[in-house]
Design brief:
alpha/beta; Rossmann fold; 39% helix; glycogen phosphorylase activity; transferase; pyridoxal phosphate; Glycogen_phosphorylase_DUF3417; glycogen phosphorylase
């Protein structure tokens, strides 16, 4: 039963249903003024609040002129936000004025389409928008939520696609012994800020899928409005489904392999179908770019191939057309973090009597099978499918991009890892969501002019607020663990608003090393209880329900925190989520992160802390490897290398962490001037807010996606119309058939001027003559390159430059083509070169796209004195 508001209060419904309130302080303050106590009891959820406000209170507000003026202002502000031009609209207008790019495909004559996509569909298995819509487990979902919010703020025409989980992830509590316990509260969509998508006649939309044996799977579609961005969430809990089908969307990351496969089919295949229906019903432009946030949604590419096949396009041409408009983001730096399914399980769910009957099962399997050195040939890999279905791919930090290129290099045999076509866009966080209101009101520009005393007092205010919040949550946790009120008086002395406060909160897989701080418990205790420079630590985190190893780590930490000697200095808070995080980040002085390098793809929690003036103390991994500066915090030294065992590595890195805390971090915090202010510490806070803060913003991230990935993908999508896609597919088939006969046959080099004694001088030129065999290919199909650069101690070329060679004659009597060109020797030190043949075509995104390269044979290389790369 939803409340019926008096006519003057009707705008409250619209404000509550648009999740912009979750990052708009003025709207939240308006709802709080409706009923302050009800607002607290609802957890800051306006939908729940309006469902509980007494009718008498609503009647009073309907006559409250000051309140109605505030309501009108809030509603008008939302209208302006939703309809006014923003950054993206400015870019579209600028490109319209500039006209089409020279040599590029001519865009349609429409101001909504010039160079930039008319719409982007963003698929993710989870979205962390607000605690009032608990559809996230950790960093992947929070990142997806921040991506949508930043896109809304920038006016980017994004639409989100995900699943609605009836039980969400899970709620965490602790047993008396400190063991993690899971609870799965049932979520009622009608009590969430959602609207069911309906046909024009009012019938709820149903998205159909077909399961093995022809069994139907139906899903309804719920819409959340995230500012300007619609978020479509598919829900299988409908009456038309059988019991098993209703449970497909029961839990986030729950169930076995088949359950996960069905979730990912519904997300990908059903998600595309939901997008099509939504666009038909609302007139929203159809997406030109499809962005898959991790491999879970990879099946969306197969559904789009099916659509094109149904319209008369062949599979290969459809594949090329789909790839052109697809962006794939990988978030994991380890193969174990990727969803992989048994070949037979996947095969059973496709083909006749199941899904996508118009596509041969073997064609589907070929997209995901690990058919490369080191792969498991019977496993279907969702990330591999994501890469094979996307023309553009990226990691989520510079370091992670490098790790991803190495991890997936097997898909591009013959290429050095730095040439693997996976770039990187470093994650960012949404400042209005994660910044304390006091910080937001000041704004980054004012921090450069704020007096040290004012900035220090602001940090103390935020720390004091955290202390109050921690005591409240700790009391509730102990009550859940079975403690009586009389046992809990000590909680009033937990934490001190004047003590250096360190935060550590995240998921609890083993590589994040929750318990590294416990490596030497005596030394940690000395740091916590230091008579002049004590520290205090607030810890939170959830282990996956199936991860008993992670649960043991939680229990180890909890047992240490339960020790009466230190329980006022180290606290573990269960049920980490957005609501807790928004209080935790601002109140901490230092944010700790100590993963096993390089297993942290990005690690955005430290970014959120930085937006509030919290200094980072972290291993150089993820984003911190990219932007670390002594002005912003500290780098924990790491014991990298294969020769060291894991136990020894943890010992070394824990000792380095203790040393930093004891010798550098704590002394700087407690180094007070005559005015009682730690001047050097405040200077670091100021630089964090003014210099680091702007770098870590989600707005910067989304702009990079638009400029570096979405816009090029849209241009490729337009260029690969059905005829062009068929042309490219036919060319690639001819290329692959002919490639075994492509070879570098002979290489000659002449140095000018000659080099007596064998050492060339800087500025010399190497004239190359290369004879190649092209088989059935033409010179227009390939590019012959010289690759040159410094040679490392393993005889490999590093920092390579690529010099195209020009065809001069051919074919000769032996079918060989001659290529020539000069190679300038412009570097001192060990220098080497090789030659190679690459495919080239005007519709390729890059030379590595087909995954084909021809290098000299060992005999040819040895005879010519060139290097094998």
């Amino acid at each position: 039963m939803r409340p019926v508001l008096p006519e003057p209060l009707r705008p409250l419904n619209r404000l509550a249903r648009n999740l912009r309130w979750s990052w708009h302080p003025e709207t939240r303050e308006l709802f709080e003024s409706v009923d302050p106590e009800g607002w607290r009891e609802s957890g800051g959820d306006p939908v729940r609040l309006l469902g509980a406000v007494p009718v008498s209170r609503l009647a009073d507000l309907a006559e409250d002129r000051p309140f109605l003026r505030r309501l009108t202002a809030a509603a008008d502000d939302l209208d302006d936000y939703l309809t006014g031009p923003r950054w993206y609209q400015g870019r579209v207008a600028a490109e319209d004025r500039a006209g089409p790019r020279p040599g590029g495909p001519v865009p349609p004559v429409s101001s909504a389409l010039s160079g930039l996509p008319a719409a982007i569909a963003y698929f993710s298995p989870e979205f962390g928008i607000t605690a009032a819509l608990p559809q996230y487990s950790g960093g992947l979902g929070i990142l997806a939520g921040d991506h949508l919010k930043a896109a809304s703020d920038l006016g980017v025409p994004l639409m989100g696609v995900g699943l609605l989980y009836r039980h969400g992830y899970f709620r965490q509590s602790l047993s008396r012994e400190g063991w993690q316990q899971e609870h799965y509260p049932v979520l009622d969509p009608d009590e969430l800020p959602l609207t069911q998508l309906c046909e024009a006649d009012g019938r709820p939309v149903r998205i159909p899928l077909t399961l093995p044996g022809g069994r139907p799977l139906h899903a309804r579609v719920w819409q959340a409005q995230v500012g300007r961005v619609p978020l479509l969430l598919l829900d299988s809990d409908v009456e038309e489904n059988g019991h098993g089908e209703r449970e497909v969307t029961d839990r986030l990351y729950g169930g076995g392999s088949e359950h996960r496969l069905l979730q990912e089919m519904l997300l990908g295949i059903g998600g595309v179908r939901a997008v099509r229906v939504y666009c038909r019903l609302t007139g929203h432009p159809g997406p030109e770019v499809f962005h898959t946030n991790e491999g879970h949604a990879g099946f969306q590419g197969l559904e789009r191939i099916r659509e094109l096949i149904a319209a008369g396009t062949g599979f290969d041409a459809a594949h090329e057309a789909v790839r052109a408009g697809t962006v794939f983001t990988t978030h994991t730096p380890v193969p174990a973090g990727i969803d992989r399914f048994d070949r037979e399980l996947v095969a059973r769910h496709f083909g006749d009597g199941a899904e996508l009957p118009g596509i041969e099962v073997e064609r589907i399997l070929a997209l995901g099978m690990e058919t490369y050195p080191g792969g498991e040939p019977n496993l279907f890999n969702m990330a591999v499918m994501g890469l094979r279905l996307a023309q553009r791919a990226n990691g989520v930090s510079t370091l992670h991009g490098r790790v991803s290129r190495e991890m997936f290099a097997g898909l591009w045999p013959g290429f050095d890892s730095e040439e693997v076509p996976i770039t990187s866009v470093t994650n960012g966080v949404h400042a209005p969501t994660w910044t304390a209101p006091e910080i937001t009101r000041l704004g980054a520009r004012q921090f450069g002019h704020l007096a040290d005393g004012e900035l220090w007092e602001l940090r103390r205010t935020l720390r004091k607020r955290l202390v109050v919040e921690v005591r409240r949550r700790l009391y509730d946790s102990w009550r859940q663990r079975g403690a009586g009120t009389a046992e809990l008086g000590w909680i009033d002395g937990v934490l001190d608003p004047d003590v250096l406060t360190i935060g550590f909160a995240r998921r609890v897989p083993s590589y994040k090393r929750l318990t590294l701080m416990l490596r030497d418990q005596d030394r940690l205790m000395e740091l916590l209880l230091h008579p002049e420079r004590p520290i205090q630590i607030v810890v939170a985190g959830k282990a996956h329900p199936a991860d008993d190893g992670g649960k043991r780590l939680v229990q180890e930490l909890v047992r240490f925190a339960d020790d009466p000697r230190v329980r006022h200095r180290l606290v573990f808070l269960p049920d980490y989520g957005m609501g807790m995080a928004q209080n935790l980040y601002p109140g901490c002085d230092v944010w700790l992160n100590n993963p096993l390098r390089p297993l942290e793809a990005c690690g955005t929690s430290g970014m959120k802390a930085a937006l509030n003036g919290c200094l980072n103390l972290s291993v150089l991994d993820g984003w911190w490897d990219e932007w670390y500066d002594p002005d912003f915090g500290w780098a924990v030294p790491t014991a990298d290398g294969d020769a060291i065992d894991e136990t020894r590595r943890d010992d070394i890195e824990a000792a380095a962490l203790y040393d930093l805390l004891e010798q550098r971090v704590a002394p700087r915090f407690y180094d007070r001037g005559p005015d009682g202010i730690p001047g050097r510490w405040v200077a670091m806070v100021r630089r964090t807010l003014t210099t680091l803060g702007p770098k870590v913003l989600a707005g910067r991230m989304v702009r990079e996606y638009v400029e570096r990935l979405y816009a090029p993908a849209a241009r490729s999508h337009r260029a690969l119309d059905p005829a062009a896609a068929a042309e490219l597919a036919t060319w690639k088939a001819r290329l692959r058939a002919a490639w075994p006969d492509v070879a570098v046959d002979h290489v000659e080099a002449q140095l000018t001027p000659p080099a007596p004694g064998g050492a060339a001088e800087l500025g010399s030129t190497l004239s190359l003559r290369v004879r190649v065999r092209l088989g059935a290919l033409d010179p227009a199909d390939v590019e012959v390159q010289a690759v040159a650069g410094r040679v490392d101690d393993t005889d490999r070329i590093t920092g390579a430059t690529h010099v195209p060679l020009k065809p001069t004659t051919g074919p000769d009597s032996e079918g060989r083509h001659l290529y020539e060109g000069p190679l300038a020797l412009n570097r001192t030190g060990p220098f080497g070169y090789t030659v190679r043949i690459l495919p080239t075509h005007r519709l390729l995104a890059g030379p590595a796209e087909p995954g084909l390269v021809a290098l000299p044979s060992e005999a040819t290389a040895e005879a010519a004195g060139v290097l094998m790369r």
